[in-house]
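Following the same procedure, sequence and fold were stored together, as reproduced here:

>
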Amino acid sequence: MPFVNRFAERHRMDLLAADVQRELTERHLALVGPRRIGKSRLLTDFRDRAAVAGAVATVEIAVDSAASTLPTFLFEMVRGVTAGFLRHAGHRPLPEAPTEAQMAAAAATVAPGLGELVVDALRLRNTARPDGHQVFTTAIRLPEAAAHVTGVPVVVLADEFQHIVDLATYPPFRAGRGPIGKSDRGRILAALRPAIERREHVGWIVTGSSIRLMMEVLGSGPLMGRFDLIEVTTFDSADARRLARAVWEDLGVDYADESTDRIDVLASGHPFYVDVVCRAAAGMAARLDSAVTVDLIDRALLESVVTATGSISIACQETWDSIVARIPALRGLVLELAQHRDASVLDLAREIGLPHESNTWGYIRELERIGVVQRAGTRVSLTDPVFGFWLVRSQDPEAPADLVNEARASRAIKRFEERWLADRADRGLVAQAAGDFGDGRLVS
């Protein structure tokens, strides 16, 4: 995807890297916004530019997948550190699924001290009954330790950082049985704080798809005051059109001027959808030996959403699969929300037959944690209305499998457009959710 609009965020990330180089890191950065809004794109851009500049090493970790167990978290941090320093040194990258021996050998080619750190960390991971606190602190402090032995400052890029509290499930952070509570989460965040508080050689850039949960993690308790929050929002009309033109010009296709207006309406400023639809429309135009037109934009979007091989459909299916794998109540709540723009928690409890509203709040928090829903007071809505549109159609056994029927296709695109236009009024929900915390301490 061409880089458009995010220059302010890029500048803030560059300032953090400069502070790390000068050993002046006081506060770190948190990028928050809905799924597929461009947060990971910013991390990738920073990583690639850092690799060219060579001033800092970057350590990437996907916290949502790494935080399944404490040993897994340590392993993924070892892999991220090793890969980051190999990239910085210009060495061959790790294989896609590296063994422990491969990581240890690769780290030693960068610096003997780095190889020793990796070996020690992996030895701890493979201990029969490792101390959970030691495993976590070893993982979280590994980037700083690597910076010390190599003399290279480090920026850690931690995607979906709010999932760090998932590790509170394990002892010694969890005090008892049942769901993890505020005190459990507080203990693991307290163990995390020394690793990020005014460290000389390390800076952190973290992302999160749920602003409310990121505020709970960063805006109170042990990490309060350690991160500046940057809201990553949808594009305005000018930037949505600029992205469309950049994609088409990069692909070498002509386009009608009104096509950029249409993509702005249908994608509602969401860069992922702009990029996907513009590329699909360009492919159609090339096959027809024509310019990109409004009709091709409509057809490209609908095919991307409703056909199984469409990029948007695949992304929505991945989201749905992550929900289906959890308890049935979550699935029921999401299906109910897909039918409406929003609903109260009490109404949701009644609609899916939950016995108590209090049970529903727990499920809503779980959906917030994985970035599927957002809250404004007691009202709940899906964070991505396209996902809701896709879900309604995917649950309809009479929905056409193809787009041969032009009348049905026209009705479908009209329903899609209506849903998007209605949702434009909710663009401020992220800021509103942040405002629920009062002083807005983290908002930059």
